[in-house]
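Work package 3, deliverable 3.1, input record:
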Amino acid sequence: DQQVKQNSPSLSVQEGRISILNCDYTNSMFDYFLWYKKYPAEGPTFLISISSIKDKNEDGRFTVFLNKSAKHLSLHIVPSQPGDSAVYFCAASVRNQFYFGTGTSLTVIP
Amino acid sequence: NAGVMQNPRHLVRRRGQEARLRCSPMKGHSHVYWYRQLPEEGLKFMVYLQKENIIDESGMPKERFSAEFPKEGPSILRIQQVVRGDSAAYFCASSPFIGEQYFGPGTRLTVT
């Protein structure tokens, strides 16, 4: 039962353009959402999070948007850089249990 | 402040053997989580522990798998009588409170 879904397994974007990674969830009880970035052979690294009481959180080049009515989360990276190439996981939590999506592999083309 | 440490990084076991995976959380972190990532899949929650307590093990298979986080020492994920389907990357994460987690580099278990 996949409660958090990332329907795009991969995304390619030109350097300098915007990368938009999407995530959908099914459980309306989720109260905290996070994005992680993962390089091969390393553990995921926390990027940015958002509480369910907000609809936007920004940190430098990274912005997370939350649309609770649509149960949709997105991560915007602008401008995209080659070093952003990695697998991005979205995660949602309720009662301190975390559910992860299957990841989107982002490739930023120089 | 060192990050989350996991060892070994790579572990090879024959079918039927036991696998022990260790996780040392970041200093000051009392919450530990274990996740499993199968090939081509995302991270799957297995168990959430605090010191000497299992808080939520709803993601852990009922048989052969166990986890502990003793008062002293690392958290241990133990898999008895391993089977080929246990081959995966196992990640540990820690946090100081309810919220963002800091992940270790993972242990890649291969069962031959």
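The first strand of chain A starts at residue 4 and ends at 5.
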